[in-house]
Specification:
SH3 type barrels; alpha/beta; about 950 residues; 6-stranded mixed β-sheet
């Protein structure tokens, strides 16, 4: 290639920077001062004669600005960088300003080669962001070119949105509904993973025998596995397939792998160890207890790969406070109406007879399991709502279509229990059936079921105390200013509750229902449409308990139906109780029947114990045995005890029956909690020191102009461009009087909703309708580009006064002798090579530095970088006439040749600092033969020249 990466060329009437993607035939160019959206390619065999080397002209002394010019121009250039210098290559492309604690996994990852990391931070801390940071950094360092995210299908669109908005990564979805379309235009022998560099793949789609071998062959160099606990070794065909796929991916010793989960242990130590062996197969031999001095070496080795923190660990990390809402929990109860209670006793008697008849008669095991699951389906639906009960009583049991007891168990657990890693999460909220369809006495049983179904249908409305009281609860939450989500277990229940809320609540309150009958895209659309109403209520099933972050629009959760799995409760609450929730408090109401033993035993045995552990540790600890086994044990005791005389007599005897099993469960649960507590203490990553994070974060922010610079730049430049700006924590701007070209850019950035006014903040939380402006937000990108292009080409401002100029002069008491500040943009060619035989890979880095000298160019006394930076903050004490300003600026330009050697030497010194920072954080490269060198592109670009004259 005849043009070096980072060099300037002139083509098509403008100047460009050569990007690393260029080759001998195709130049990939970014306009000087332009945006990434303006990147273009020039095919040299056709246009090569029109492409010439270019140089950056010195400022025009006739275009003199005021004291703000240097500051605004400096920020505009830095905010426009996408290939920034500094310790982290990725910061210039991030759509947010990372919290300090989120850098810990990144620093850990860069000390590993290959990266093998298990991120197990608590729910709502931001594990997706932490994994994305590592991915973006490896991509921008040129160490990987492709990325795959493996996740449950219901999380795929969330990952796609997060990668796009926060990391500027455009990934395609590889799901059952998209794969055929993506593969349509492939050539023979091609894989879609060869064509699309960034993919988000449904784990359950790709783990199948037909797909997995192709994926193993063409899988990207970097893989993120979300909900990684579902890939731990466990019984069950689906879990085994997932585990085997991830293990096979890990066998490639060069592949980078990031595992993400909030529950790495899942209450089971063996499952946790199977995850660790994905990181390093040698972890299989770790001792069960890692405490004590004798195990320090094991802890140190594991700590290099494993980070696990609670909210308390990061709430006040470094100098940054991370706001999490306070969770205000409460319980609400109801009593069954006499009619509902009679039906409950009738159903309970029926299911007891059904189960005991088969068991006592020594019937075949298959019939026992079908009857068992039909019984649980009936009890669960009846506890939910009369409409769910009627649907279950009328429907055929899905277990009846099984062919073996094992298959009946698999179907029953999937449709009736609350498995958090279900093979078919989209169908979990369908009301199960109870009609077993057996030949003997089938007609009699069906008649009894239909009679009970008709009885259930008569209970809707006034005879349903659960429904009636829930309306008052929701009304109270709305009156207190909360925006509630009501979680139901079954689709009929959710629709039933939503219908009643629409009838009883004021018309101004919008009520929407979202269930598994809707595709994921439609669920998201309904939630967004609902949020446009000032007062709103969402009724949904557990199809929304994970996958869609709801903290922007909701701040209260009502458990209308108790989950039979405490982890599912935590997932529901975690939709609103997470980082980014703007309400200081979130409300959680657990709703149950005091005379409904179905609710009572689940609440007593599982949910309250889970809550006690969470309150004590600050984290959730899953049930340490299979939750379904616990639930089955509970209801076996409830259904198979000797016959009581009435429903009220069940509980005392049942409590005595369950006491030994409950004590055994709690003993195991407490032991798991102690293991989790020790793990959080050992692996909260105190090994990454706060001062290390602080040093690298400061250097990275300085390089890209992040943080407070974004806010100051936006407020100041918009005012100078004619915007009417008010700021009291938020920024509200009327852009009516700003240049039309700027408004056009904003319209492109914001979309059809732009009406010459914007409301924004520069940090969380946001109000409804506000923009979160970060350095890479399209609005900020448009603003900085407009400022820079106006300064580089004054004609581009169309007669509007430029807010920033490339030259200026002020008289100030801040200097004692004539001092000149140069804003210089340095461009570097970073070349990396792994091994002696591999070609060097080029990267581009840009850095803007203020350098200053006192006196004339011929007698220059160069100032330190800190002294140069302070000049930018000086304000004028007296006017400088335009003629005098031009005279002094012309002297600097005429004597510029005398300054060039120092500027070149500064470029070389900063290049050495860049190399040191690059290698410092990527310490693993020294162990694996990754060689890096940095070459400055000379001459550097002098963006601006500013004179500071002593006040006379």
């Amino acid at each position: 290639m005849s043009f070096a990466v980072g060099s300037l060329v002139k083509a098509r009437g403008r100047e460009w920077v050569v990007l690393p993607e260029s080759d001998e035939e195709m130049l990939i160019l970014r306009p000087l001062g332009g945006r990434d959206t303006e990147i273009a390619g020039i095919y040299l065999p056709l246009e090569g004669a029109q492409v010439t080397q270019a140089h950056f002209d010195l400022p025009d002394p006739n275009q003199v600005g005021d004291y703000l010019s240097a500051r605004l121009l400096r920020d505009a250039v830095r905010l426009g960088f996408r290939s920034s210098a500094g310790p982290f290559r990725s910061f210039a492309r991030l759509g947010f300003d990372p919290r300090p604690y989120q850098l810990v996994p990144l620093l850990m990852a860069l000390k590993l080669d290959p990266v093998r990391l298990l991120i197990a931070d608590d729910v709502g801390i931001g594990k997706t962001i932490e994994a994305g940071l590592v991915a973006r950094e490896l991509l921008d360092r040129g160490e990987v070119e492709r990325l795959a995210v493996l996740c449950p299908p219901q999380l795929a669109e969330q990952w796609q949105a997060e990668l796009r908005s926060k990391f500027n990564i455009e990934a395609v979805l590889v799901l059952p509904g998209t794969a055929a379309r993506l593969e349509r235009d492939l050539l023979l022998g091609q894989s879609l993973f060869d064509i699309y560099p960034f993919v988000i793949v449904s784990m359950d789609f790709i783990k199948t025998e037909r797909r997995r071998n192709e994926f193993l062959r063409t899988c990207p160099e970097l893989v993120i596995v979300d909900e990684a606990h579902t890939c731990a070794f466990a019984e069950g065909r689906g879990r085994h397939q997932r585990h085997q796929l991830v293990r096979d991916l890990a066998k490639n010793a060069d592949r980078h792998m990031i595992l993400v989960t909030a529950t790495p242990h899942s209450g089971k130590e063996d499952a946790f160890r199977s995850l660790l062996t994905i990181l390093d197969e040698n972890f299989e031999g770790l001792p069960d207890d890692l405490t004590g001095e004798q195990n320090r070496r094991h802890r140190v080795r594991l700590a290099a790969h494993f980070v696990q923190r609670r909210r308390a660990d990061i709430r006040h990390y470094m100098d940054a406070d991370t706001p999490f809402p306070e969770r205000m929990e409460g319980e609400a109860t109801y009593k069954l109406s006499p009619e509902y209670k009679r039906l409950f006793e009738r159903v309970l008697e029926y299911v007891r007879e059904s189960v005991r008849d088969v068991k006592d008669a020594g019937g075949n095991h298959f019939r026992q399991r079908v009857r068992w699951w039909s019984a649980l389906a009936l009890l669960r639906s009846l506890a939910s709502s009369p409409r769910a009960a009627a649907a279950t009583l009328r429907n055929r049991a899905s277990t009846a279509d099984a062919e073996t007891p094992e298959e009946a168990d698999e179907i029953g657990r999937r449709t009736i229990l609350d498995l958090t890693d279900d093979e078919n999460p989209e169908g979990m909220d369908v009301a199960p059936g109870s009609d077993t369809g057996e030949d003997d006495a089938a007609q009699t049983n069906r008649r009894r079921l239909l009679e009970m179904a008709r009885a259930a249908e008569t209970l809707e409305g006034d005879k349903d105390e659960k429904l009636k009281k829930s309306v008052g609860m929701v009304r109270d939450l709305l009156a207190q200013g909360y925006r509630p989500i009501v979680f139901c277990r079954f689709i009929p229940t959710a629709e039933y509750v939503a219908e009643e809320l629409r009838k009883q609540l004021p018309k101004k309150v919008a009520v929407e229902v979202v269930t598994g009958t809707l595709p994921p895209v439609e669920r998201q659309a309904r939630v967004e449409a609902l949020a446009e109403s000032e007062s709103h209520v969402l009724v949904c099933t557990d199809c929304l308990s994970e996958g869609i972050n709801l903290q922007d629009h909701f701040d209260a959760v009502v458990h209308y139906d108790l989950s039979w799995n405490p982890t599912r409760h935590e997932q529901r609450e975690g939709r609103v109780d997470r980082f980014g929730q703007r309400a200081p408090t979130v409300r959680v109401l657990t709703y149950y029947g005091v005379d409904n033993q179905i609710d009572g035993v689940v609440l007593d045995v599982l949910l309250r114990k889970h809550k006690t552990i969470r309150s004590s540790l600050g984290i959730s600890v899953p049930v340490p045995v299979n939750t379904e086994e616990v639930v089955e044990a509970i209801f076996e005791g409830l259904l198979l005890r000797s016959k009581p005389t009435a429903l009220d007599n069940y509980l005392p005897g049942f409590e005595e029956y369950m006491k030994p099993q409950k004590e055994d469960l709690y003993s195991k649960w407490d032991a798991a909690s102690e293991r989790e507590k020790r793990s959080r203490t050992l692996f909260a990553q105190e090994t990454i020191k706060v001062d290390e994070v602080s040093r690298e974060l400061t250097a990275a922010r300085s390089a890209v102009g992040a943080g407070v610079d974004v806010k100051a730049f936006a407020l100041q430049s918009l005012r100078l461009l004619g915007g009417v700006v008010s700021s009291n924590g938020s920024m509200d701007v009327d852009l009516t009087e700003t240049p039309q070209a700027l408004r056009d850019l904003f319209a492109q950035a914001i979309g059809p909703s732009f009406k010459s006014k914007i409301s924004a903040r520069f940090d969380l939380p946001l109000r409804e309708g506000q923009l979160l402006l970060t350095r890479t937000h399209p609005v900020m990108e448009s603003l900085s580009s407009f400022i820079l292009e106006s300064a580089l080409d004054p004609l581009a401002a169309h007669g509007i006064k430029n807010p920033a100029r490339r030259a200026g002069a002020i008289s100030t008491s801040g200097v004692s002798r004539r001092t000149t500040l140069l804003l210089v943009r340095f461009r570097y060619h970073i070349l990396t090579r792994r091994g002696k035989n591999e070609e060097e890979r080029p990267l581009l880095a840009e850095e803007l530095a203020p350098i200053a000298f006192a006196g004339s160019p011929q007698t220059a006394e160069w100032l330190s970088s800190d002294e140069a930076e302070k000049l930018l903050q000086l304000t004028p004490d007296a006017n400088v006439s335009p003629d005098r300003a031009r005279e002094f600026l012309q002297r600097v330009i005429d004597g510029f040749e005398a300054l060039q050697p120092h500027i070149d030497e500064t470029a070389r010194l900063l290049g050495k600092d860049l190399l040191a920072a690059h290698q410092r954080v990527r310490s693993a490269s020294r162990q694996t033969g990754l060689q890096t060198r940095v070459e400055p592109n000379l001459p550097a670009d002098v963006i601006g020249i500013y004179l500071y004259l002593p006040k006379v």
